[in-house]
């Protein structure tokens, strides 16, 4: 055969005595066949391809929808409709192909082709946004029926921020809500303001940042009134609704003047049991730490400070080169300078911390009973030794429909937290210590006094082992609700909600803490037990009525009782023989310094009615009235009535709006309401209408006798503070709600503000609480949401908010137009026409220069010192030259979040900003040099300071600040912060099916990665905080997982 077919593309072989033919194809022939196939196959495919044309219109008005996306499901191919809503698309297998048609603001539809060549598609409007349920206090309503100013955050928004504290989830997310940390240590609290400041209480701690817990809004967790929400695990929160205007908050009467935040925790859901696990673990680091002088920089600064000391006394003959360091520095410092050995004290005490959260939840139920259970553990380590926070939470809820008439719900939430605050002095000492000190002795052990002979500042390395400051807090909330539905649309409920908080603060300062200065007799311990038990009992009647096709009526009546009981016990002792027992054996201290306690109890009784009426679903009216009686006011002033009225007009539903497709939603809101405050917050004296009795021990002769005295002057006329607010709102949507949002303009007036008015000391008292002040807030708030791009697998959305608030005092008492107060004499002022707690100081005008020596001396000053303006041109600087130079409240604030989704990937970044605020900077007061009489006693912030050879106009000569350096302690603290950046991936269904789970998401988040500010201290949001509060910034890089079984 080889001879018969000598060159054929096959060969003959024998196998098991059988003749077989095998192909032997040359490569050239194979390539030719591939080319032929590549030409032939598409022709075959085209033979099975069909062209489909069609039109996409709105099912609401039959108008064409341009820009709608038409995708061939499963192929990744598609097109978009033209201006007339028309499209053309090619499909394979027209008998089985499916088209997916979508457009923003409409419900996505899937259409089977079924060999059709022409298809017309009607998309129905997506009303899910308008039908979103909003919690408004003692009830719910659809967003489209809302008449007040309410902003909501769902669990997705809350968890996306991945915060330890639920307060932080609100930061920059809601227009008009300003949030500031009480301190930046782990587990620290937060102060919240909604729409500005509502009080002119002189006890307000504006010198510590301008926020007062007494101005916090009312927090309602699952119907329970709480003072703080830091005990909550944010992953347990289903939603938060922020009620801002008086019509929305009036149903809470005297408790709603500062706004209301309603929080609902996650509940059970009908269906088979699901298990969900959420986790994140991250690393925290401090950043943007102030630049202190190091090495040779400090040595030069030290010389310049010595010269400054001479200049301050009028001696200008000394130069920096003339300074002999041995006359001023400690012996060990001189040795370190000679050897070039310098130390960065911050690097010695700083380290990275860890933050983690683990949340496990179970949910399930049937049409009769649903349940939910969740447990969580949270840890947040500080970046300085000794700072740590741990929290354990458990929640459980059960709701059951007992019959057609009765149902019951039982919610429980418990939290146990341990907070270690570490040393108050360690960070401050690290910033104050000169880099020329010696941290370790010859054996490598820390030495207590790094500067030989200097006993004022100790080595911060001793603080973590010698200071214990621990707080343990147990919170328990419970809500038992019984509901009775005797007839259709009538529901009667009774809710009983106890709230228990037990807290113990323990502190021990060992021998080698800075405050004890190495003396065993100075060791001290403190224990403070604080217990609060309160309950709320709400009895609610709700009735819905529809008559005809045009009328809807919803009525709510509430009778409520609230009781709050608080007690605390404090003991302080000194001189312990050993440090081993810390504060647990407090009685072992031989020197009793304090044994004190306190008790308070208050009750509130309330009657509330609310009526919601809708006519043709276009004209909406809400009327609310609440009658409150408080136990802490005098008999004749116990009761007060707080009314509100709100009207909304859904303009979009009018006939004249139907022939256009530009505006998708338009609603006008108008409201007026009154709320109140009984003055128990913000440091005011509860029961100020009564004279209270205190006791003391007094030496009478040779005996110690217990005595009693009146602690305050009673004011029987003390009554409620009143807040009256008008709100204009506009809800809008354009381009089929591709752009939608809300605009609110408000005017809030506070009258009868309770103020501690000084009186003559002849009375035996320094003052009395009276209703004397008035203030107002005017502002504008804007919230915008947009779908910028939505094509195929890609979607880009933006959420933006903006708020501007103008606050001012309109009245004090008598003819008085200002009241000075503050940590520095006259540093702050309550002044008519200015914001509450404005900064009141001199106006910085540069530095006195050498050629201005004569003019400087006419003001009693020297070159190199701070120059301020002589505002009244009288040739002298005195109190009359002080003026308002700013306020700690920002002129405007805002936030913006952008989210990008591509297939299973999502990417979000969030930025927030505060602009125009001015604050005292504790860092500049304590760590910028020259404020101490001893030349260069402390290290200093790097500044462009004045010297004869560097005639700067920015900062004074070291140790020669002069009498008017106070303005340099105030700084513009505007900032832009990147709140978080998150990249996530959601696994596709085949992977989920293989793993037998419902959902799996992995993500990486950077929290607070960047801050942009001109402020040179710690955190611009906490500039007024001292180093005890660790007001530094930190950022966290974390990874997390969400899995649902």
Automatic annotation (TrEMBL):
It is a multi-pass membrane protein. GO terms for cellular component: cell outer membrane. Residues 143-260 form the TonB-dependent receptor plug domain. Keywords: Cell outer membrane, Membrane, Transmembrane, Transmembrane beta strand, Transport. It comes from the Bacteria. SUPFAM superfamilies: Carboxypeptidase regulatory domain-like (SSF49464), Porins (SSF56935). Pfam families: CarbopepD_reg_2 (PF13715), Plug (PF07715). It is found in: Cell outer membrane. Belongs to the TonB-dependent receptor family. This is TonB-linked outer membrane protein, SusC/RagA family. It comes from Echinicola vietnamensis (strain DSM 17526 / LMG 23754 / KMM 6221).
């Amino acid at each position: 055969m080889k001879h018969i077919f000598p060159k054929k593309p096959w060969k003959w072989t024998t196998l098991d005595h059988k003749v077989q033919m095998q192909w032997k194809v040359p490569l050239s022939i194979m390539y030719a066949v591939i080319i032929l196939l590549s030409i032939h196959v598409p022709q075959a495919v085209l033979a099975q391809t069909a062209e489909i044309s069609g039109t996409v219109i709105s099912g609401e008005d039959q108008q064409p929808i341009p820009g709608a996306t038409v995708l061939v499901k499963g192929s990744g191919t598609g097109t978009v409709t033209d201006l007339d809503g028309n499209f053309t698309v090619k499909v394979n297998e027209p008998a089985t192909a499916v088209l997916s048609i979508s457009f923003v603001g409409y419900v996505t539809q899937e259409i089977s082709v079924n060999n059709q060549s022409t298809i017309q598609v009607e998309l129905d409007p997506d009303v899910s946004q308008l039908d979103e349920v909003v919690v408004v206090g003692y009830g719910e309503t659809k967003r489209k029926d809302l008449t007040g100013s309410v902003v909501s955050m769902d669990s997705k928004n809350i968890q996306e921020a991945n915060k330890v504290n639920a307060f932080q989830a609100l930061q920059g997310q809601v227009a008009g809500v300003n949030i500031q940390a009480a301190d930046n240590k782990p587990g620290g609290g937060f102060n919240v303001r909604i729409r500005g400041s509502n009080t002119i209480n002189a006890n307000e701690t504006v010198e510590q940042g301008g926020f007062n817990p007494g101005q916090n809004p009312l927090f309602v967790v699952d119907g329970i009134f709480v003072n703080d929400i830091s005990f909550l695990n944010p992953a347990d929160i289903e939603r938060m609704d922020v009620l801002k205007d008086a019509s929305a908050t009036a149903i809470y009467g005297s408790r709603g003047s500062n706004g209301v935040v309603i929080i609902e925790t996650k509940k059970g859901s009908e269906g088979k049991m699901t298990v969900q696990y959420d986790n994140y673990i991250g690393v925290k680091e401090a950043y943007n730490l102030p630049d202190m002088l190091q090495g040779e920089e400090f040595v030069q600064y030290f010389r310049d400070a010595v010269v400054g000391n001479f200049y301050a006394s009028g001696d200008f003959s000394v130069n920096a080169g003339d300074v002999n360091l041995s006359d001023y520095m400690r012996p060990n410092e001189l040795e370190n300078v000679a050897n070039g050995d310098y130390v960065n004290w911050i690097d010695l005490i700083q380290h990275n911390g860890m933050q983690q959260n683990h949340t496990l939840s179970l949910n399930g139920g049937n049409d009769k009973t649903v349940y939910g259970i969740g447990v969580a553990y949270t840890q947040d380590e500080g970046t300085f030794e000794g700072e740590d926070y741990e929290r354990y939470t458990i929640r459980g809820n059960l709701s059951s429909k007992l019959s057609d008439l009765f149902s019951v719900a039982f919610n429980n939430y418990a939290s146990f937290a341990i907070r270690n605050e570490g040393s108050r002095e360690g960070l401050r000492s690290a910033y104050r210590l000169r880099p020329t000190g010696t941290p370790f002795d010859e054996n490598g052990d820390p030495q207590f006094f790094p500067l030989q002979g200097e006993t004022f500042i100790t080595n911060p390395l001793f603080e973590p082992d010698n200071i214990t400051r621990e707080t343990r807090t147990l919170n328990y909330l419970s809500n038992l609700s019984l509901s009775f539905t005797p007839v259709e649309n009538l529901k009667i409920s009774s809710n009983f909600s106890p709230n228990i908080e037990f807290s113990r603060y323990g502190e021990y300062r060992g021998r080698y803490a800075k405050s004890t200065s190495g003396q065993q007799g100075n060791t001290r311990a403190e224990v403070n037990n604080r217990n609060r038990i309160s309950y709320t009992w709400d009895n609610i009647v709700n009735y819905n009525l529809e008559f005809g096709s045009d009328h809807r009526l919803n009525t709510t009546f509430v009778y409520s009782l609230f009781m709050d009981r608080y007690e605390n016990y404090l003991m302080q002792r000194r001189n312990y023989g050993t440090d081993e027992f810390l504060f647990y054996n407090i009685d072992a201290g031989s020197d009793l310094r304090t044994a004190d306690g306190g008790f308070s109890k208050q009750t509130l009784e309330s009657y509330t009615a609310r009526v919601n009426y809708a006519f043709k679903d276009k004209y909406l009216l809400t009327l609310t009235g609440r009658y409150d009686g408080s136990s802490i006011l005098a008999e004749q002033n116990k009761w007060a009535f707080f009314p509100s009225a709100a009207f909304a007009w859904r303009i979009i539903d009018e006939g004249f709006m139907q022939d256009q497709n530009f505006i998708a939603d338009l609603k006008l809101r108008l409201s007026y309401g009154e709320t109140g405050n009984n003055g128990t917050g913000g440091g005011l004296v509860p029961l100020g209408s009564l004279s209270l009795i205190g006791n003391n021990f007094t030496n009478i002769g040779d005996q110690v006798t217990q005595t009693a005295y009146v602690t305050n002057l009673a004011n029987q006329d003390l009554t409620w503070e009143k807040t009256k607010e008008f709100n204009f709102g506009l809800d809008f949507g354009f381009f089929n709600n591709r752009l939608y949002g809300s605009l609110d303009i408000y005017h809030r007036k506070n009258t009868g503000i309770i103020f501690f008015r000084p009186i003559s000391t002849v009375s035996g008292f320094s003052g009395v609480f009276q209703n004397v002040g008035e203030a107002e807030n005017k502002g504008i708030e804007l919230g915008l949401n947009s779908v910028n791009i939505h094509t195929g697998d890609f979607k880009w959305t933006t959420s933006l908010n903006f708020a501007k608030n103008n606050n001012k005092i309109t009245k004090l008492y008598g003819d008085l137009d200002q009241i000075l107060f503050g940590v520095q004499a006259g540093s702050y002022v309550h002044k008519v026409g200015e914001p509450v707690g404005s900064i009141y100081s001199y106006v910085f005008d540069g530095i006195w220069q050498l050629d201005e020596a004569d003019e400087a001396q006419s003001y009693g000053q020297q070159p190199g010192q701070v120059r301020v303006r002589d505002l009244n041109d009288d040739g002298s600087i005195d109190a009359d030259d002080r003026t308002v130079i700013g306020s700690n409240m920002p002129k405007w604030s805002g936030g913006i979040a952008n989210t990008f989704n591509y297939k299973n990937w999502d990417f979000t970044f969030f930025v927030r900003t505060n602009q125009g605020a001015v604050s005292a900077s504790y860092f500049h007061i304590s760590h910028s040099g020259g404020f101490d009489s001893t030349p260069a006693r402390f290290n200093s912030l790097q500044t462009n300071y004045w010297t004869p050879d560097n005639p700067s106009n920015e900062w004074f000569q070291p140790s020669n600040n002069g009498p008017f350096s106070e303005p340099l302690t105030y700084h513009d603290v505007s900032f832009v912060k990147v709140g978080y950046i998150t990249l996530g991936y959601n696994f596709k269904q085949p992977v989920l099916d293989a793993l037998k789970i419902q959902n799996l998401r992995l993500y990486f988040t950077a929290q607070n990665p960047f801050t942009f500010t001109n402020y040179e201290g710690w955190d611009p949001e906490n500039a007024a905080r001292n180093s005890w509060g660790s007001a530094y910034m930190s950022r966290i890089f974390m990874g997390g997982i969400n899995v649902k079984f």
